[in-house]
Amino acid sequence: xxxxxGETVPDPQQKTRTRKLLEGWHWYRPGISRxxxxxxxxxxxxxxxxxxxxxxxxxxxxxxxxxxxxTGMREDIGLTGNDLNYLNAVYYSxxxxxxxxxxxxxTRLPISKILPTMEILWGVCTFGCAWVHNLTQLYVCRxxxxxxxxxxxxxxxxxxxxWYKRDExxxxxxxxxxxxxxxxxxxxxxxxxxxxxxxxRHGIEGWRWMFIIxxxxxxxxxxxxxxxxxxxxNNTRPSWLLNHSxxxxxxxxxxxxxxxxxxxxxxxxxxxxxxxxxxxxxFVFAWCLYDQNQYWGTTPFSLYLKAxxxxxxxxxINDYPTVGxxxxxxxxxxxxxxxxxxxxxxxxTLLGAILVASGSIILVVWNVPEGARFYAFFIDGAETAxxxxxxxxxxxxxxxxxxxxxxITASMNCIGQVFLAWVPIFTFNVAKAPRFTVxxxxxxxxxxxxxxxxxxxxVLDVRRKRKENKRMLLIEARNDNKTDVFDDVxxxxxVSSKEKQ
Length: 501
Description:
- It is a multi-pass membrane protein.
- This is Major facilitator superfamily domain-containing protein.
- InterPro entries: MFS, MFS_trans_sf.
- By secondary structure, this protein is an all-alpha fold.
- The chain has helices spanning 12-22, 34-77, 83-97, 99-108, 111-129, 135-149, 152-163, 166-198, 206-228, 244-257, 268-275, 278-293, 299-307, 314-319, 322-342, 346-365, 370-379, 381-397, 402-427, 437-500.
- The model is unreliable at 1-10 and 488-501 (pLDDT under 50).
- Helix content is 78%, strand content 0%.
């Protein structure tokens, strides 16, 4: 800002952002009461413990398929051509087919029981993958894996968004989202260890041991869910973890935020209201781009390493893709800290989109040093980090409307998976490894579009905030006018009484 005298006056909003950024990381909001701090601690213990473990096990098991494919499974059960993509398509098709029945269950049955039950069924299906001997059996296992996962991500995201305040949400969402790349990282290391130390033990191949280990990790996670995972605040009864006063405090916190309580079922009026606004279209489209852009740093990278004329070892094939997941974790932590402190979701989202677009351009050029290609595959981890910022951004935009938040986050996940189910079959054909020309060009286009879409969302969000601020000012002005009128009446009344006396 520039004053009339020509002196530059600092922008007060920018000063506030900088001050908050330099304050340091606060897990709890400054000035929070002891009772509220205990409540938030218990919420972290109950929601994040199970939510993070659930996401960790899902990603661990899903990544295990790719790791197993490049570490002996393809040869052992006779997979050929584009079978790996078809297996993923079966999984996502099942996931999407059960999305509506799953949403029906979440609105009518206790989430605290549904999610752990599905976790157990997921573990059983994962265990089944260890004993397949042909492609048909693996298709069956992948189909049921998709069916049992369909409630997990949306259910946990909704519960997190239902209990925490806005300035608590980003950090918790980041921790939840970190568990996904962490699962992918550990999957690579576990597969390397299983191949090195367990291959052939008791007559079982190393890749089969990976699925057995995943089952052993998944089952205790479900038990934790049964013990401590809550429902929504307005549907939660006092328990051994949350007493009656803490449940009341949780609902009071939401009332202070102006958050609407969600009805038992979402009606057509709510759906129509959401579809009339820009957030649904922009965030669903952004999530579709996210799903496509984060893909080429995972399975295509592993296939590139396996088909490379440099003859990478099984350990290298499993370990190198974990670097991108490490980048995702670091960027998620840094970006979430920044966005929570400043309230800026746009900056981290834009930076991630630009980094990913630069990586896809390198792969389109192709004739570059091997180190440049590795950078391109590694930097795709920045896209994985963007899931945190997009979900938090969407939750911020509709934070006062629980029904809108539920519809938008579920739509983001569902519609994004629709395209992820079939697009890679054509863009990243397994037989084209190591050079996926069509896929790299497609990723470059979607990366650039993602940059432009982030800018559009920011423009619309700024406009929304201005309208919201004007509305709040009008409400305050009306309230002040009413107060003035009542004050005048009181004054006139007192004067009249004095005159009578």
